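so my prof wants the structure for this chain in the tokens format not the other one, which i didnt know existed until like an hour ago. anyway here's the sequence
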Amino acid sequence: MRDDAGYLAWTQAPRGAMLFDPRRVRDPGPALFDPGAYGAGAQPVGAGGRQAAWFVQGGAWQGVLRHFRRGGLAARVSRDAYVWRGEAATRSFAEYRLLQALHRQGLPVPAPLAAAYWRRPAGPLYRAAILVERLPGVQPLADRLPRGEWTAVAGAVVALHRAGAWHADLNAYNILLDPAGKAWLVDFDRGRAGGVSGAQRRGNLERLRRSLRKVGGDEGLRYADRLEAEYRALWDAGPA
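here's what i got, hopefully its the right format
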């Protein structure tokens, strides 16, 4: 056991290992991260998934399975391979542990269910995947701009920053709203904990503003203005 999570390694090529929540995942193994193993039960995620995310279902959970994919110029070299720097530094294990810590603090993030990596011993590269709990009935912020909900969204981002955590890609598809209007933050690949500077907080808001402008044009910019005002008010008010 490591970090109160189950741990399983496999020796068949490509070799790999996984972390998992033993309370939720009863049948751990590589098949958990293969969308083909779910048959018709694996449904591709639409926007924001880079064609590498699926809604899947286990015996006692509903989840989102995501294979790690590169974006931008790096994808021209390799779409899904990363340089090996040790097990703890794998993108999947790092995200699992960050989500685990944030979820335990009661922050609005999905519970992590499992994470894995695969590598060939003779090579310097690995591939990875993560499985997180599916949030029922949620919609991305990109689809909810006319409904406002600035306070809920700003509150979720303020809570994240007060916890000393930073989101590497805060955009209009990585903020989800449920039927009750609660905001959730997802996709913590490359996220970090341990403190957030003023520059990092501003960087998160600026990245979100660019995303809102891209998906909503002038409406998106107006939304960003209201959201940032709500964020400042909540931040200046101090912890509840």
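also thought this was worth mentioning. The longest helix spans residues 198-237.
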